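dumping this here so i dont lose it again. seq + smiles for zinc ion
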Amino acid sequence: MTILDIVTYPDKSLAQPSEKITDIDETLKTLIEDMADTMFEAPGAGLAAVQVGVSKQLIVINTTEEGQENSYMALINPEIVEADGEFISEDEGCLSVPEFRATVKRFNRVKVTALDVDGNPMELNEEGFPAVVLQHEIDHLKGVLFINRISALKREMYKRKVKKWMKGR
Ligand SMILES: [Zn+2]
């Protein structure tokens, strides 16, 4: 089991779009397993490769049911192909944005296409919270954080808080 370091805001790499994956090799499979371990350990609902310093279009989603063994899904080159409705995501948080939560307006339903770990095309249709997790993680691959989707005022408050921490170090 390998726990990877999580990159946190304001690291500039989090604002960069990730590259499409062309080779699904052993290195990538190891990365997927390490990302899953890191997500379970945190714990988090999902994790994007850019959050562990790898700028590739890869996300893992926590599919563990309460009281059950840990399980996850990996999505390579995921893309939202359909989205509708509105979902108010309350208390949304991010492992890369510590000590901050906010309400974010999301789509209620999304259809996502991706490749699985064996390179086979897959399609997901999710609604509500699982749809929010997919939108949040796929945003990471575009260099978008949830704090880019809240009011400028709230974002400034968080930025000031981070600046204070960094001075205190
Ligand atoms: Zn996040």
